[in-house]
Every structure is written in C-alpha cells, then in structure tokens.
C-alpha cells in the first residue's frame, strides 16, 4: 500500500516520541521522583500510531490506564503530559489527574482511564455524538485483552451494533491482564466475540506499523462510511510490567529480550522504509535527535514546574456549584 | 326563623379566585357586626384582603377555623339575631353544608372565565375579558412587573354594562416574554394592536404606574382610541422613581429578599401574602421574564429616573381624565400630579400605597365608574 | 397555566428543552418502546410508566433512543455523549439499577472535570424513579439519593411536586454538570398548577413550603408533602412549623436550614432513605456542628429502619415515614424539657 511521505515521517516521529517518553519515564520513575502508578506502553507504539494516523481532531478516542501512547498519537503535547505525570500545576490536567487521567477533549482525546473497561461505553456515546451531530467523525475505543472480559465492553459491542454507531473497538491484546495471561483469562477468541455481535472484525500484527496502518484504515473507513461499528484486534506485547515496579515474575526469562530484538516496531519501520528508499536514514536520524531533545526538555521543565497550590484542591469539581 | 340568619361565605376576590384561606378572624362569636366591618382576613392566591361583612347582625358561629382553606361560597360563619335558638342555627348550618357540598363545585366555576391567549402580530397576549353590553368598553393596563390579576378587585365591579379587558403586557404574566425596546410607546402600540384585534375602536383606559405612561403614549399616538383616562399612580408625570423597588424587584430571587421589596407597593404591609410573593418569584423564573424586566427598567428608568415626560400629552387631552394616587405611595410620588389643569380631577387616598386598586378597591372603582358613566 | 401531573410536568420539561436545544437527546430502556415488537409500533410505552410518551413520535429516531437492557453501556454512552457535544437525558428506570452502571456515574461522569483539570464539561441528566410505597420490594424501591450526594462532581435533585419537577428538570438539562434527577414513583399522578411556559428553578435554594416559629422540619422529595400535612394539623394545635424542602441534596442549601433552625430552635428531619449516612444524618451533623447553641431540644429524625424495603403492604407502610410519625416527632421535640441545667 502507498503511504504519503508526510504520514510516514509523522508516524515515525510519533512512535519515537512514545518510545523515548516511556523509556525515560522508566528511568525517572526509578529515582522515586514520580508519584503514583505509571503503566508504560513501550513495544505497543505501532498500534496507537497506526490507528491515529487515520484520525483527525474531530474524531474521538478513549484510552486505558496504559494511555501515554494514545495521548501522544492523538496529538497531546509531551510537555503537558510530562508535567502532569510529575504532578505539576503546568500539567495538562493541572496535576489533578496524573498518568492515568491525561485527557484533552479539544483534540478528541477523551482521557486515559483508570477503570479497566471504562472506555468502550464512553466511546459509544462519543460515536453517538458524531452520528447525531453528523460531523463525519468516528470514535475509537482502545482497550486491552483484560478489558475485553468486562461486561462494559461486551455491552458496548452490542449497543454499538444496535445503534449502528461509527465506532471502532481496538482490542490491544498484549497477552496479559496485569499478571494473568490472556490464554487463561479470555475464553474463546476476540474474533468469535465480534462475530457473536455480527460485528466486522479485522486483525493485525501490532508490532508492525504497516500492518496496523492498513487494517486500521479499512476498519475506520468502514465505520466512517456509516456502515456501523467494527472490531480491530491488534496483537502486540508490552516490554515492561503491568506498572513500574512490576518484577514480571509471571513472564519467562528472555521473553522481553526477544521482543526487543525481533518485534521492535521502530527498528522494523526503519528497515522497511530504507530498504525500499521511501525515506532516507538521515531523515529518521534527525527525528531521533529532535525527539531526544524534546523529551529532555519536557523532563527538565516538568521537574522545575510549580506545584499545584492549596486553592487548586477545591477548584474544578463542578462547572458551577 | 331562617330569615333571621345570614350566612357569611367565602367571598370571591377577582375572577380567578376559586378558594381562599381564612388567615384570621377579626371578631369573636357574640360580637355585634355592622355591614362593611372587616370581620376576617382572607388570603387568596394573590393577596390577603380584609373581608367586609355583607350584613349586620350578631356573629353567632365561626364555622371556618383560622388557617382553613375553603372554596368560594363555603360557609365561614353565621350572623343571626340573638333570639334565634342554637338548634335552629345548627339546622341552618347543616342544611347549608349539605346543599353546598352537592352543588358548590358548579356554582363556583360558572362565572369564572379563564383568560384566553390572543395573538397580536408576533406576540401572544394573555387576555381576561369580563362583561358585555353596548357601553364603551374599558381596558386596564398594569404596571412594571404586574399582570392582569392586579385588576382582580376592579374588573368584575366595572363590567356591568360593558366589555372590560385586562391583559398581561409583553414580558409579563402569561404573555410572550419579549418586549422589544421595552419603552412605553412600544407597549402602547401593542395595546392599540390588541384593541384592533379585539374589535375595540375606542375604550376607557385605566393605567396603573408604568401602565399609566403606556396609557398616555396610547393617547399621544392613537387619540381616537381613548374615551377617557383614569391614571392610577402613573409614571410619566415626573422624573423620580424609587429604584430600590425596581432594582429589588429584578434582583430578588427568594421570598425573603422579595417580600421587603413588595412592601413598597402597599401602605398596609400585611396585604402582601406569601402566595403573592411566591407567584412573583414563579413569574420571574419563566424563560425571558427577567430579561424583559431588565430591558424595561433600562429603557424606562435610565440613570435611576423616569425617561419620558408625558405631562404635555395629558394637559392637552380634551376628554375626561382623572388621577388616583395613594398618599403614602413609596414607588412614585403623588406630588407628580401637581400643576395639572383643573379639568383633571386628582383623587388622593389616605393611608394608601402604590396600588390603590387593591388597597382601596371600592374607592377606585367608584371613581372609575363615575368617569366612564 | 393548568393543572398538570408530576408525569406531565416532566414530559413537558423534556419536550420544551428538546424544542429549544437540538443537542438535547433522550435515551433509556423502553422510553419509546415497541421497536422490534410484532405489533410494528414504536412509542408503545413511552417509558415504563409513560413519562416519555409521545417524545419519540415528536422528535424521531435521531433524538430519542431506546436502549437494550444494558445500563453500563448506555449510561456510559450518555456520559461519553455529554463530554463530546450532546446534552443527553438518560433514564435509568429504577434507581436501584444503578448497581449495574455505578462506574459510569461515579468514576467517569462525576470525576471528568476534576481529574482533567477543569477542561471537561459533562452536561448529563440521569433520571430515575425512587421510593417505596409501590409494593415494588427491595430491588425497586430504594431512595438512593444519599449515595449520589456522597460523590463529588454530581448534583442531585429530589423534586417534591409537579411545579418543582418541571422547573428543576429544565434547570438540570441546562446545567453543565452531571445531574441525578430522582422522581418518586408514587407521585406521578400528583397534580398541581404548572405554568405552560418553560421556567427553571435554581439548584441549592431551599423552598420553605410552610413558615412557622416553633419547629423546623427538613424533608426530602415526597416527604415534603407528608411534612406539610403534619404542619397543617399541628398548626391547629398552635404548633407552627417551618417546612424546608431543600430541592437538591447536592448542592445543599445549608444556609437556609441553619437560618430556620436558628429561628425555631427545634429540628425534625424526614428522609425516606435508609437511615445510616443518609440526608437526615447529614443535616443533623450540620446543625449539631453549626447551630448547636440554637437548639432547644435534641434533633429528631423520622426515617425508615435499617432494612431493605419490604414487599408486603403492611410492612411497607410500617417502613415508610408518614405524616403521623412526623407529627409525633414534632410534638416530642416541643414537649422536651432539659433534665437539668449545666452545672
């Protein structure tokens, strides 16, 4: 398939940004300076970016507790995200949400979500907005194999079909719900679940940007054309634990090392585009350097940013009260 | 013996009243009552009013208890000669109650015409008609923040031989809540259009407060439509106005804050009933009501003073005109009526506030009857 | 202006707001009803008790959405739609069903604005029936407003009459925060004068349905009517009561409650929700903390026992507060004499 030059560059930059953002968080979290829980998206970058490459600011996404990648892919700035994760007033949520609640509704980013299975019902609503307001938008729910067992997700698949919503259910299947394998926790298959609701199903290798881009393109086009919801099953793997500090005692030795060696979406992307001369290696090198600077700057700024003030405690519970 | 027994029944204050609450008895059983004496206070959905005895006699029984709410026509008490026996009184009361309970619902409703909605251009106006006959009709124009119920004690009394019209100005009561520029001239144009719609070529015009200014604007632009003019505490004759009333009326959003503002309207503060306050709060909650009041206040009372001087319109009127004013008006000053030609009678009512038509309904009705005869 | 039932008042509020604002949509189970039925009709029910009857016919399939029996998905959808440009009014049928969708209300709608740093608006109304007195038994009769009141980010409305219901529902629909609007199912046929025009009643402003000098009765929802009945009977015996209808439990008009208690010195609270951590305990704590010196007698609560709502009529009658119990509570605080003065 043909992918425009600027989309390739933008997508690479986005994947690189996610990777560096997460790798840096892994390092910084270990220093003890970052409060709370952090769930890293390393290894899954191609999924968020391959899907969001087909979306505009009109379209809506809902994310998960592992949400940094979706935020960056949807266009949320890393400065505001980093400051938020550090609990600073300059954070995208003024330090009141943290890693699990990064949102920017102006960009159609309906929020990371601390509740597993929280996103799919919200996405039915966002899709309903697109349908009623007739703005041509689609709504995309990212959810994991763990969330695929939540009643909210299964109810949402049904509701979206009943209402024929422009919704895309992206099941990011990384094989683990926390410390429990999908092979244990998920009965049947995602494909059969989609079929059970009469919902069209697409699947792809989530470590291959081009596979995701192609499958997501078909899935989103189906929903956007008014043909109803679809499921996109993205098979991928996370490189870190459920949360930072997870020793991953449930994973075999060497599993992550082999993922890094053989299923690195960034390495694969570089190899593929340079082999066929779609992009020059130097262009990718430039992006790598620029992203590194950007993340450095974001961390420095976040560390130096002001903390929330006491008056912020009771602000913004309501629009008016 | 029954001719010696006079039932005292729940009166009907105004067209819309279907029931009233006896808030207090002002006389005790055994008291000798003269006709016209205030024997009880009756609270209606609009106002609390003293109830003047329709007859002379001894109050032998208080049938209704204080705090009781009863339909119009229900027995409140019994006047009777001291010679009438208790047994006869009991029999009378028993018969009255049994007759009343079987027929009351119908009789209470038959003479009660509901207001109707009349379309005038882009506006819908709520209109209350009463009376019929060949005599020149009469139209009532209420003031700022009022509605057609301001005439509840007047309209029926003046409807003997003519059609009478009370209506809610735009922005008020049940009429459309848009007021254009909110100026008296605009309301006068609407009033004229309403008269056209109702087929009234000419009418006696009674205007209260801002409605007085509207009446004068009507006279200015459509002189042929005005048969006579009765202005009650009218705006348009001076500059001063109590802006504490206007601003307070607009800003008060709770009973506690509105009630003191409404006290400006009357000399006898007890006339302002809980329900009257509640009704005004409810009116102000209607979509567009508050904006309408604000527009009117800004247009009619910029800089805290009345904008329009309509005295020349009144002095050049060749027809019959009179002014009725409460001596204790706390909203507009009765001194505004000074310096008018002798042909215009000015009636000043003592111990009366800004709403003589409610507070001194009998006197006001008598004055209007005289001029429209 | 004409007499309208509680049901009609709510229907009219919905209709007028849908006419005014095309972003207002309705969703819920059987709110039209009949879709997919063999009769081939829609708007067959208009809601399980007919409250939304006619709205599907008037506004069509793009404004009125029947849902599967699937509370988590459609309440969540209402939340998502509210965050993305619509103003949904979702009907939860019986408030007891909140157990199936509490996450969408408690963790999503209520928290968006705060955890997103003030950037989200979630103009959502969830309508649901509450209350005992219908022989609907334990899973269809609860008065769960304290549950919602407890959650920051939600507003909670408990209307006490048709007039109140229309004005408060219009306010709820125009409000930019998530609002839980609870309708007592026993009151749908109650009638009173309700203006034909749209109007709104602000949240957080209590209504005094009676004003007196001796005892303040704070009552919620349907209990306001019982409190009024009790107050009217007591007045004949010379005991004059103020009856406070807070209208909304969140925000709560604490100032008016405190003022009334300062005036009367005695407080009876009537709440038909389960007695632990309910509005009665909340108001009692408020007054004990902030108006202690004004109290001439202990605060009395007229509340149900700490049990599920029973089915049998005789038990359900025992369960619910009524005007007789309110009356007796008022008499008891009037009769109270301090055993001994402070040393």
From TrEMBL, chain C:
Gene3D superfamilies, alphabetized: 3.40.50.920, 3.40.50.970
Coiled coil location: none
InterPro entries cross-referenced by the UniProt entry: THDP-binding, Transketo_C/PFOR_II, Transketolase-like_Pyr-bd, Transketolase_C
Keyword Oxidoreductase: yes
Keywords assigned by UniProt, alphabetized: Oxidoreductase
One Pfam family linked to the record: Transket_pyr
Superkingdom, taxonomy of origin: Bacteria
Domain Transketolase-like pyrimidine-binding residue range list: 4-190
MF annotations from Gene Ontology: oxidoreductase activity
Name of this protein: Alpha-ketoacid dehydrogenase subunit beta
Natural source organism: Acetobacter syzygii
